[in-house]
Amino acid sequence: ITVFFTIALTVYGYFEAQNLQVEKLTISTSKLPENAGKLTIAQISDLHLGVIIREKHLDKVLKVIEAANPDLIVSTGDLLNGTVDNIDYLAGHIKKINARLGKFAVTGNHEFYGGLDNAVKFMQNSGFTVLRGEGVSIQNLINIAGLDDSAVKDFEPAENVPKKSVRKIISELPRNTFTILLNHRPEIDGDALGTFDLMLSGHTHKGQIFPIRIIPKLMFPIDSGYAKLPQGSSVYVSRGAGTAGPPVRFLAPPEITIIEIVPEKQIQK
Predict the structure, then answer these.
(1) Mean pLDDT in runs of 10 for the chain (269 residues)?
(2) Is residue 269 in some structural domain?
(3) Using CA atoms, how far apart are residues 34 and 190, in angstroms rounded to an integer?
(4) How many Å separate Cα 239 from the centre of its chain?
(5) In terms of Cα–Cα distance, which of 98, 100, 47 is closest to 71?
(6) Which of 234, 254, 251 is nearest to 243 (CA)?
(7) Taking the CB of the first residue and of the last residue of the chain, which one, N or C, has fewer CB atoms within 10 A?
(8) Cβ atoms of residues 122 and 80 within 8 Å
(9) Among 248, 259, 257, 258, which Cα is nearest to 48's?
(10) Is residue 59 part of a domain?
(11) Residue 268 located in a structural domain
(12) CA 68, CA 42: separation in Å to the nearest integer?
């Protein structure tokens, strides 16, 4: 019975890992001009392209993003599982998906495992601008800032580790503009609260397999979904689109996140 139960759970877990979900989030803000209309952002996280996850799952992910017709596409780390050997051609698949305001990415811990230079090149060949401790203003509509994963300190020499704090990075961007912070791990920098409106993260996979969920819950203040933070900031943590290790999930299906930023309606007097 135990063997049968284990096999049944494994089979279920395999199919759940293929069952890509679309999670939707709407945020209203006074920092977006009413005449701008809504801004649609597609977040992809933890796809883990590599030996196991290749064209079939990637194309499923890209179809979901394309159907959303986003204004902006962001990748919040672990686009790769490790080395780019034998999968570098997949960058061409990703590059075909465009967004009018651009595509931006940050590193996850797995980008360092297979070699940072090759990982950054892969992301750039996929059409992403890679943000490493820096930020950009996009058409005076929205700010995007991005951080390297904290693994950078373990894999890169000190001179290659970005030095600026989140507060410093964002202080150099236009004020009173909706600001998104891309940070692979949902680690909350208390000093940065109030400088960003929405932090987008991943890394946790929501545990990927249910009993393991307790680990990210202990490690991070939020392991999946949306939460408001002090001083007007907020965070959304994706369950991720792929898998790390065995290609199974249990009670933590993969996701692509579609976020709509909409201007607050003026109060009728």
Answers:
(1) 75 86 96 88 97 93 97 98 91 96 98 95 98 96 97 91 94 97 96 97 85 74 93 97 89 95 66
(2) no
(3) 31
(4) 9
(5) 100
(6) 254
(7) C
(8) yes
(9) 248
(10) yes
(11) no
(12) 8
Q: How much is the pLDDT for 265?
A: 74
What is the distance between the alpha carbons of residues 43 and 38, in angstroms, rounded to a whole number?
16
**How do 103-105 and 72-75 pair as beta strands?**
parallel
Give how far Cα 175 sits from Cα of 26, 140, 141, 203, Å: 22, 10, 11, 29
What is the number of residues in the chain?
A: 269
List the structure tokens of 136: 């950009």
Range of 229's domain?
A: 2-263
List the strands of the sheet with 255-263, edge to edge. Answer: 21-29, 255-263, 39-44, 72-75, 103-105, 129-130
Q: What is the pLDDT of residue 268?
A: 36
Name the nearest CA neighbour of 167 among 184, 153, 181. Answer: 181
3-state secondary structure of 26: strand
Q: What is the CA radius of gyration of the chain?
A: 18
Q: What contacts 11, CB < 8 A, 6 or more positions away? A: none
What does residue 132 show for φ and ψ, rounded to 5 degrees? -125, 85
The answer to whether position 130 is within a domain reads yes
Domain count, the chain: 1
Q: In Å, what is the CA distance from 247 to each residue of 19, 83, 137, 184, 237?
A: 12, 18, 38, 21, 20
- Token pair 């009413």: residue: 34
Say what the pLDDT of residue 269 is: 32
* CATH code assigned at 132: 3.60.21
Nearby residues of 175 by Cβ (< 8 Å), 6 or more positions away: none
Residue 208 to residue 223: CA distance in whole angstroms:
11
Q: Which of 154, 161, 180, 177 is nearest to 234 (CA)?
A: 180
